[in-house]
Amino acid sequence: MYRYPKRRRPAEQEAGRQAGARDPGQARYQPERRARRRAVVAAPPPHRAGVPPRAGMLLRRARVARLATADPRGQPYAVPICFAFDGTYIVSVIDAKPKRLPARRLRRIRNITLNPRVALLVDTYHEMWSKLWYVLVLGRAELIEPGTPRHAPAIRLLRRKYRQYRTMPLDEGLVLAIVPRRVAAWSARRPAARVRPP
Asked: Rounded to two decimals, what is the model's pTM?
């Protein structure tokens, strides 16, 4: 027969605490509390948001996007970019078009190095406003160095999309990869669709 722990008087409890002893009732539940706490700490954080099928189609079809970065003080900076979407990542390369500065001194690269949070906007304008649409991607950008495993697949994807890249030297170009964290898609014909990390 189970015997319940003997109930202590307040004076006995105080004496037990000073001696380092635990209350029997407290000891029964402590391991369960620890297990729950460990489960919460060990749960992996979400890494990316799923991209709705229609937003993915618009991202693949679009020829140009606007990439917005910000420095650590929050000063925004936006540039148009060529890009490709493989269903998981959005990739772009610092290509051989004329630029005033070397790749690593470009403001977008300096901003991403210090603050990887970015926004990417793809949209179209038409005089018939029933044909308007946009896709907004909020995410984190990372730099992919030449010679690393993910560099060559990104270059192949970009060359399939843009014929101009097929004759341009890109093997040494720095690649930007954006991991979507939040996606919002809107069109005049359909309601907005938003996806957030689970």
From this structure: 0.69
Same-domain status, 35 and 133 = no
C-alpha 94: how far from its chain's center? 20
Q: What is the CATH number of the domain that holds 167?
A: 2.30.110.10
Per-residue pLDDT reduced to its tens digit, 136-153: 999 999 999 999 999 999
What is the reported pLDDT for 98? 58
Q: Same structural domain for residues 118 and 170?
A: yes
The answer to whether residue 36 is domain-embedded is yes
Q: How far apart are CA 168 and CA 95, in angstroms?
A: 8
Q: Which residue has the tokens 């993915």?
A: 56
| Angle at the Cα of 144 from the Cα atoms of 148 and 110, rounded to 5 degrees | 145
* Structural domains counted in the chain: 2
Whole-angstrom Cα distance, residue 172 to residue 155? 10
76-81 and 117-124 beta bridge pairing: unpaired
3-state helix, strand, coil in the chain (%, to 5): 35, 30, 35
Q: What is the Cβ-side half-sphere exposure of residue 55, based on CA atoms within 13 angstroms?
A: 25
| DSSP run (H or E) holding 134 | strand 133-144
179 in a structural domain = yes
Residues 85 and 128 in one domain: yes
